[in-house]
């Protein structure tokens, strides 16, 4: 929800107060889907582990239970692939929206001919990239 993140745009006039701007975009849906699926996958893995270890005789005696377990696992694997792709696209959109050149282009004070604007630092996205890979 980048639209909730304010930042101050400086004014060139010495007396003018800085204006508050907001970033553009809401990329929360892919992230929420990714996290929700991760939580449900973890809970299913814990339930399956209890079933495998505690109720092994029930699991081996019932012929439908292993097939059901396999089908649910395949579904989770498919949705995990979809969620990772959605989060990857959401992350690339977040990177595009928070790129310093995009933010500078949105600032009206930087549109003058004699004005030179530059970013203080480039945001580090290493941990976000790792979240897509895992």
UniProtKB/TrEMBL annotation:
Domain of life, per lineage: Eukaryota
Annotated TM spans: 33-55, 67-87
Domain MARVEL, chain residue ranges per copy: 1-134
Subcellular location, principal: membrane
Membrane topology term: Multi-pass membrane protein
Keywords: Glycoprotein, Membrane, Transmembrane, Transmembrane helix
Compartments it resides in: Membrane
One Gene Ontology cellular component: synaptic vesicle membrane
Pfam families, alphabetized: MARVEL
Stated family: Belongs to the synaptophysin/synaptobrevin family.
Identification of the protein by name: SYPL2 protein
Record organism: Odontophorus gujanensis
